[in-house]
């Protein structure tokens, strides 16, 4: 008993227990059906792209449940607000930020919930407006509850919302593979499936290399007089954007899908909407190319978001550091900018090509379409696990320090 108490008192163990409990709540919520909705006639349950894309955002479109929307509204809100605040120097109050965030999240959640509702049948044939409003309210409430659970995991658990997304994504991909096991391992698809699995493992290895690889720019430090001064350098990661650009790319593809689903219900005879929908699905050539373009662009953008050139140059000025043969100030900033662009273009092209290759292979094959996203899923999972691993290492650092008076 005393041993168990000691284990529970450890910060890492306590956080892991909280995260496990919250994940359990999320998994239960994914199986809580919404009243009056006919599950058997749900039109989106066989849409592979929408189902997997929603799972990457913590949702579940295989059934209409409490957490069908997942963390999608929350993530879209973060993306839109982050883009809107780029370059803004004026900082608003936390209360104002919270109001803006919740209002925008509410609007996005309503749009997503309506897109799902128009693809379901209700048990009752009476006036369906109250049923639509009731279902929409439950789905929107579920999205806010899931966002709250993610925040609780940030404060008291490990990994924040990342853990919820990771479990949801792996669970959906595993179910997709198991449900189509016979088809994807049929004689005509067997070797292609094995090839995709091997390609996915190679993709994880390449991603890990990118996470550790860095370009070292030599620095001269006039304020340091030491024999180690010749070894001073400024490290810039080859993939400065991190590994979340694939998740954000899926987000950019998924939101137009929801809007087009709603428009198709409002304008059922408009054939142009179906064509537009294919542009935002990885089951079409145009959709894959757009997906690659978004990953490439986000890799470039996030690299500059994660590396503040103005702040770096300002720190050089304060410390007296400089890059050999480069004038301080604007020239240094321009040089660093060019380095980041070259590295981002390289990593963006490699990552987008690696993720897209299995999708090209699976074009026109509905069976392989369920296993083709595995490469991207495993790369995103590796990025998330890496984030969780770093957080665990930070918590464990406390064990390396003891009180001065012990």
TrEMBL record:
The listed locations are: Cell membrane
- How is the protein disposed in the membrane? Multi-pass membrane protein
Q: Per the record's keyword annotation, is Protease included, yes or no?
A: no
GO biological-process terms attached to the record: intracellular protein transmembrane transport; protein targeting
Where does the chain cross the membrane?
Answer: 64-83, 103-122, 128-150, 162-185, 191-210, 246-267, 287-309, 339-362, 368-388
GO cellular component terms listed in the entry, alphabetical order: plasma membrane
Pfam families under this entry?
Answer: SecY
InterPro entries for this protein: SecY/SEC61-alpha, SecY2, SecY_dom_sf
The keyword Transmembrane helix is annotated on this UniProt entry: yes
Which Gene3D superfamilies does the entry link to?
SecY subunit domain (1.10.3370.10)
Q: Which UniProt keywords apply?
A: Cell membrane, Membrane, Protein transport, Translocation, Transmembrane, Transmembrane helix, Transport
Q: Subunit info?
A: Component of the accessory SecA2/SecY2 protein translocase complex required to export cell wall proteins. May form heterotrimers with SecE and SecG subunits.
Protein family: Belongs to the SecY/SEC61-alpha family. SecY2 subfamily.
Which HAMAP family does the record match to this protein?
A: SecY2 (MF_01466)
| Purpose of the protein | Part of the accessory SecA2/SecY2 system specifically required for export of possible cell wall proteins. The central subunit of a protein translocation channel.
The entry's protein name is Accessory Sec system protein translocase subunit SecY2
Organism, scientific name: Streptococcus ratti
């Amino acid at each position: 008993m005393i041993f168990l108490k000691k284990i529970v008192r450890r910060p890492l163990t306590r956080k892991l227990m909280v995260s496990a409990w919250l994940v359990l709540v999320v998994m239960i919520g994914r199986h809580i059906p919404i009243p009056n909705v006919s599950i058997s006639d749900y039109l989106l349950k066989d849409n592979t792209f929408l189902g997997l894309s929603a799972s990457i955002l913590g949702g579940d479109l295989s059934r209409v449940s409490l957490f069908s929307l997942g963390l999608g509204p929350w993530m879209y809100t973060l993306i839109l607000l982050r883009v809107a605040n780029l370059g803004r120097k004026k900082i608003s109050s936390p209360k104002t930020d919270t109001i803006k965030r919740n209002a925008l999240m509410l609007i996005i959640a309503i749009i997503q919930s309506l897109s799902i509702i128009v693809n379901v049948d209700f048990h009752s044939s009476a006036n369906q407006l109250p049923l639509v409003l009731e279902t929409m309210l439950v789905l929107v409430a579920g999205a806010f509850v899931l966002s709250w659970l993610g925040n609780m995991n940030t404060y008291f658990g490990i990994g924040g919302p990342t853990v919820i997304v990771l479990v949801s994504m792996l669970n959906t991909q595993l179910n997709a593979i198991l449900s189509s096991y016979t088809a994807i391992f049929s004689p005509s698809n067997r070797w292609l499936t094995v090839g995709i699995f091997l390609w996915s493992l190679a993709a994880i290895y390449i991603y890990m290399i990118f996470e550790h690889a860095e370009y070292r720019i030599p620095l001269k430090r006039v304020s340091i007089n030491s024999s180690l001064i010749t070894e001073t350098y400024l490290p810039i990661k080859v993939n400065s954007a991190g590994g979340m650009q694939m998740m954000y790319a899926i987000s950019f593809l998924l939101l137009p899908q929801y809007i087009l689903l709603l428009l198709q219900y409002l304008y059922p005879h408009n054939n142009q909407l179906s064509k537009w929908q294919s542009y935002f699905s990885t089951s079409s050539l145009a959709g894959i190319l757009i997906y690659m373009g978004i990953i490439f662009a986000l890799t470039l953008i996030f690299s500059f978001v994660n590396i503040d050139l103005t702040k770096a140059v300002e720190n050089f000025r304060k410390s007296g550091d400089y890059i050999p043969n480069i004038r301080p100030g604007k020239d240094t900033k321009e040089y660093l900018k060019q380095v980041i662009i070259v590295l981002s273009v390289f990593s963006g092209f490699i990552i987008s090509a690696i993720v897209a290759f299995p999708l090209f292979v699976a074009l026109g094959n509905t069976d392989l379409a369920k296993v083709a996203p595995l490469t991207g899923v495993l790369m995103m999972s590796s990025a998330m696990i890496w984030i969780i691993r770093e957080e665990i290492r930070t918590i464990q650092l406390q064990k390396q320090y003891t009180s001065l008076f012990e």
